[in-house]
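All the exercises in this workshop are built on plain-text protein records. An example says more than a description, so a record of this kind follows:
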Amino acid sequence: MQFLLPTSRKNLKRGKQNVALRVLLVTNGLVVFSAAMLGPIYALFVRDIGGDILDTGLAAGVFTATAGIVVFLSGRFSDRVRESEVLVAAGYFIMGSGFFLYTQVESVVHLLVIQVLIGLGEALYSPSFDALYSKHLDPERSGSQWGTWESMNYFAVAFGALAGSTVASLFGFQTLFIAMGCFAWTSALYIYFLPRKVL
């Protein structure tokens, strides 16, 4: 019995890790999927609101610069927050709000403001997500578990790009943006209302 107890505890810990990692993978996968839905047709959307190829690059640059600046600060802030999952949920929610706001874009200036908002959301959740994911890794399988996340990321982008192009071609950009926002908010709400002991 004394020999079985440590093994049982180890299995229980691994079981909890597996549940936590699955939750993180699925919810993050949904957000990555939603963001990727616009990726391959982004330039077409910018053209539809009166922009050109330079505006497309500017919008992408604004998003990336915002995320790059804020992620450094949010990483330091996340170290002081007891419930990292709240920051993850907040980041997902902000990104989803940005996706919904795409439906109101009428100019390149509006687009740039929304790009800042989405960049802020991504930068807010990224360090906290990485910290949560790392916390639940099995030290003996950390390489394969990070590999699972990398694989999920690529597949989410691939299927998101295909799905987004299909939705936009059949139903238009407005429907696409609503779908993107719904996916991101679904992940945000799921993480937020999940019992804290899971993550």
Summary: The chain has one domain: 31-133+142-193. Confidence is low (pLDDT under 50) at residues 1-8.
